[in-house]
Design goal:
The chain is α+β, with helices and mostly antiparallel strands. It is built from 15 helices and 20 strands. It is globular.
């Protein structure tokens, strides 16, 4: 039985994991860099261990130091959160090789789904619809041109090991293809140490729909409905909502069923997310994230299920505490990612938070590790917190979000709060009529 969890992360997700553990009666260990000594999770955890200097390459990405911290403190499990080592198969293997429980999927599934080409093939084998494209990696320009002619232009060149929009280039015509492949390969090699790329049909105005799943080691798999993550800037999500305003209940039940069958066939364990592009009534698989998502709170708000708690239970060998029939979709939820960035230029704004006030009231949640006097270090992502609201209807949810955004105060640094206040007044957001390119058009970036 898990009695002490080492949290191999920082910021709001480290605090989120700590809270779930404390409610389960599980002790926590917070690891931190020298820059995060005053982090809220470090303050609240039962124990804390400094694992290195500020750069993540010398601290949060140092596998051996994290495992050493677990052994020194007597932790029996490791929760990786999201980002950093959460989708690192070697880390998962190391954790389990040292007799610790990895709160996540098996290393095999992390490795397979981390390779976009292998993941796509696994989904084809499992009967999941995918975006038309190359059968595997592109090995020559001649092969790429053949695929491009078959699926039609424009095409998208994608890194096999990619993420966050890196190693991804659009070729509008065959004439653009060679340069797009070279650029994508260069970016991918620099970012991921792998220059393998593949081709997909470029969809004009798709929505980004993802299905949250969780599976135990007893053969039980459930989906927790969908999230719409189409409001993106440069492939980075800005606002998410659940359920999607683009789907009806029959559609969400159908794709949920397809995903559950695929996950069961994989023999997957733990939480995960199947991501799709959705256009003209069709779903196209793009990738699977083998971890907790940043936007998991919107799913928790509409289902009442604590995903982190369930992750820990599954890792501990327990059965899911619910069946598919128990998972009701109640109301609507929206999440805003509040970053320490200029709201127009998106230049990071590290520094000391001088004033901080969290919004409150019915069905308002703020997942944040920030506080007045906290210094936002320049070494990591700029997320201050996630504001999540719930309403009985989507309209009620939007109105509640407007009110909560007006209440929130973060002083001393630039934030994206003004952008979110603009977004909830925009007609496209109010109507739920947007695609993955809408926000960039709204911001004048396209």
């Amino acid at each position: 039985m898990i009695e002490k969890v080492l949290i191999a992360n920082r910021g709001e997700i480290a605090l989120r994991i700590h809270r779930a553990c404390k409610e389960m009666g599980i002790a926590t260990v917070a690891v931190h860099s020298e820059a995060d000594r005053d982090a809220m999770a470090v303050r609240l955890a039962d124990e804390s261990v400094c694992i290195g200097p500020a750069p993540s390459s010398q601290s949060y990405l140092k596998k051996s130091q994290i495992i050493a911290a677990a052994e020194i403190t007597g932790a029996d499990a490791v929760h990786p959160g999201y980002g950093f080592l959460s989708e690192n198969a070697q880390f998962a293997e190391m954790v389990e090789a040292h007799g610790l429980v990895f709160i996540g999927p098996t290393a095999e599934h992390i490795r397979t789904m981390g390779d976009k080409i292998a993941a796509k093939q696994a989904m084809i084998d499992a009967g999941v619809p995918v975006v038309p494209g190359s059968d595997g990696g592109i090995t020559s320009i001649a092969q790429a041109k053949k695929v491009g002619k078959k699926i039609g232009y424009p095409v998208l060149v994608k890194a096999a090991s990619g993420g966050g929009g890196r190693g991804m280039k659009v070729a509008e015509t065959e004439k653009d293809l060679e340069n797009a492949i070279k650029t994508a390969k260069t970016e991918s090699l620099a970012a991921f140490g792998d220059d393998a790329v593949y081709l997909e049909k470029y969809l004009g105005k798709p929505r980004h729909i993802e299905i949250q799943i969780i599976a135990d080691t007893h053969g039980n798999v459930c989906h927790l409905w969908e999230r719409d993550c189409s409001l993106q800037r440069r492939h980075q999500k800005v606002m998410e909502e659940a359920p999607s305003p683009a789907l009806n209940h029959a559609q969400r039940e159908e794709i949920g069923s397809v995903v559950v069958k695929a996950v069961a066939k994989l023999g997957y364990r733990g939480a995960g997310t199947m991501e799709f592009l959705y256009e003209d009534g069709n779903f196209y698989f793009i990738e699977m994230n083998t971890r907790l998502q940043v936007e998991h709170p919107v799913t928790e708000m509409i289902t009442g299920i604590d995903l982190v708690r369930e992750q820990i239970r599954v890792a501990d060998g327990k059965k899911l505490s619910f069946s598919q029939e128990d998972i009701l979709l109640v109301g609507h939820a929206i999440e805003c990612r509040i970053n320490a960035e200029h709201p127009e230029t998106f230049i990071p704004s590290p520094g000391t938070i001088t004033d901080f006030h969290a919004p409150g009231g019915p069905d308002v949640r703020l997942d944040s590790a920030a506080y007045a006097g906290y210094r936002i270090p320049p070494h990591y992502d700029s997320l201050i917190g996630k504001l999540i609201v719930h309403g009985r209807t989507r309209n009620e949810c939007v109105m509640r979000l407007r009110r909560a955004l007006d209440e929130m105060v973060v002083g001393g640094v630039e934030t994206t709060l003004p952008l979110h206040r603009r977004l909830v007044e925009a007609q496209g957001v109010i109507d739920g009529e947007y695609d993955i390119h809408w926000l960039e058009r709204f911001l004048g970036l396209k």
